[in-house]
């Protein structure tokens, strides 16, 4: 099906473990984004990407790593998970010149 | 630098009553403004957007918003609330007026409750 998907939808991990959240879109959008959603903060930008192999930091990048080897995929890795990274993570994409972002269903991550 | 303030983290209305969700923004470039809705355990869905042109914009599900530059506001309204409108609403400002990426800065969100 066309659209933007995220996997897994739910994840529980332990402090210190590495976790990778996947994001895949079928529209060939150039721009992709990762946000985290926390109560009282709305959504905050973690990283974004303008194209394959072009990424940059957002508002809250510490503790996260991204890569984008293919246009359609934009994985987010927590190198050593901490409890403060317990959150809901959303991936989004948009086309060049169209600033409307399309959001995935989210991944709820719990770090114990 | 950009910021968004949504006045009221919770708004409660009766079915059939006017819905008014307030949003004020700050932007150093011409703002592109958005309202998104989030239903429980779902992603965000675009309700409406302002980029340029007409300052009163209409969106899905009967919602509309008016861009008021002098007041730096982009309040969301709906004349008659429906039970299905119960959700969390986010106002966002984009830096698209200054760069080509369109990064979004979100407000804290407003939870709308609709009573029968």
Describe what is shown at a glance.
The complex is a heterodimer of chains A (112) and B (116). Chain A has 112 residues and is mostly beta strands.
Mean pLDDT of chain A, nearest integer? 94
Which stretches of chain A of 5+ consecutive residues score pLDDT under 50?
none
Shape of chain A: globular
Question: How many E strands of chain B?
Answer: 11
Number of strands of chain A: 11
Distance between the termini of chain A: 34 Å
Outline of chain B: globular
Please characterize this protein's 3D structure.
The complex is a heterodimer of chains A (112) and B (116). By secondary structure, chain A is an all-beta fold. In chain A, 0% of the residues lie in helices and 52% in strands. Chain A contains no helices and 11 strands. Chain A has strands at 4-7, 10-13, 19-25, 31-38, 42-51, 54-57, 64-66, 76-78, 87-94, 102-103, 107-111. In chain A, the strands form 2 sheets. In chain A, strands 2, 4, 5, 6, 9, 10 and 11 form a 7-stranded mixed beta sheet that branches. A 4-stranded antiparallel beta sheet of chain A has the order 1-3-8-7, with no helix packed on it. In chain A, strand 4 (31-38) and strand 5 (42-51) form a beta hairpin. Chain A is globular. The mean pLDDT of chain A is 94. Chain B is mainly β and 116 residues long. The chains are: A mainly beta (112), B mainly beta (116). Chain A binds chain B through residues 31, 33, 35, 40-45, 48, 50, 58-59, 90, 92, 94, 96, 99-106, and chain B through 4, 6, 9, 32, 34, 36, 41-46, 49, 51, 90, 92, 94, 96, 100-109.
């Amino acid at each position: 099906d066309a659209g933007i998907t995220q996997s897994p939808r739910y994840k529980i991990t332990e402090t210190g473990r590495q976790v990778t959240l996947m994001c895949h879109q079928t529209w060939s959008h150039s721009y992709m984004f990762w946000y985290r959603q926390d109560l009282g903060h709305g959504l905050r930008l973690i990283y974004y990407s303008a194209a394959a192999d072009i990424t940059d930091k957002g508002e809250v990048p510490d503790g996260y790593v991204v890569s984008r080897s293919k246009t359609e995929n934009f994985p987010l890795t927590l190198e050593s998970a901490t409890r403060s990274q317990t959150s809901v993570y959303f991936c989004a994409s948009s086309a060049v010149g169209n600033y409307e972002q399309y959001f995935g269903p989210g991944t709820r991550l719990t770090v114990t | 630098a950009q910021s968004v303030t949504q006045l009221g983290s919770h708004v409660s209305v009766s079915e059939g009553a006017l819905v008014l969700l307030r949003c004020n923004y700050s932007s150093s470039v011409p703002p592109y403004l958005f309202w998104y809705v989030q239903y429980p355990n779902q992603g965000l869905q675009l309700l409406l957007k302002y980029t340029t042109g007409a300052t009163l914009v209409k969106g899905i599900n009967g919602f509309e918003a008016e861009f008021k530059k002098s007041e730096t506001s982009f309040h969301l309204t709906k004349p008659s609330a429906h039970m299905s409108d119960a959700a969390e609403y986010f106002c966002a400002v984009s830096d698209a007026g200054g760069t080509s990426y369109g990064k979004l800065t979100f407000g804290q969100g407003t939870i709308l409750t609709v009573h029968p």
